[in-house]
Amino acid sequence: MSETLTLAAETRDRVGKGASRVLRREGRIPAVIYGEKQDPIAIHVEEKALVKALGTGHFFNSIVELTVGGETVRTLPKDVAFHAVTDRPEHADFLRLSADHAVHVNVPVVFANEEKSPGLKKGGVLNIVRHELELVCTPDAIPDEIAIDVSGYDVGESIHISAVTLPAGVKSAITDRDFTIATVVAPSSLKSEEGDTTKA
């Protein structure tokens, strides 16, 4: 389960480019909270705090609790716009959450037991097709990562989503095909020794 991040926020009375520029000069980042059939709330957060949260590496699949005017709003970050030159955050969007509201999140994949893969032991290479999985789950069930066991996989074999055990309450957002997550491929030295018989 991803950790919950907290950010202090204040409401914005003025919106628009000019007002946003003033906020950024003061070290604040304009943002908006929307969703759950409620009116959007224009807010601003401290730039340093937002940058620190972004630096965790799992900002977009963490619940972010925004404290606004003494109230705590549970949200999921949906977008952060960055300045094209300076890479500083310029605006953030947060989706308001309820406990039973299913959300789409991208969760990183990690691979376990590589030493138990016959193909990797032979010098094969794990070719990762998807570094993240798009999942659907309730906010409280968002996993930090999905660990995939590669033991038993040989050269030429692929790991598909059907072979992955997802945590309880978590489903793949892609349901129309058994997509590939990674493949164990032969190293280039092995290919050249055997002679590549494939035709372009």
Explain what you see:
- The chain has about 200 residues and is mostly beta strands.
- The chain folds into 2 domains: about 90 residues, Ribosomal Protein L25, Chain P; about 90 residues, Beta Complex (RNA Polymerase Alpha Subunit, Chain A, domain 2).
- The chain is built from 4 helices and 13 strands.
- It has a 6-stranded mixed barrel with strand order 1-3-2-6-5-4.
- The longest helix is centred in the first third of the chain and has 9 residues.
- The C terminus is likely disordered.
- Part of the 50S ribosomal subunit; part of the 5S rRNA/L5/L18/L25 subcomplex. Contacts the 5S rRNA. Binds to the 5S rRNA independently of L5 and L18.
- Belongs to the bacterial ribosomal protein bL25 family. CTC subfamily.
- One of its GO terms (cellular component) is ribosome.
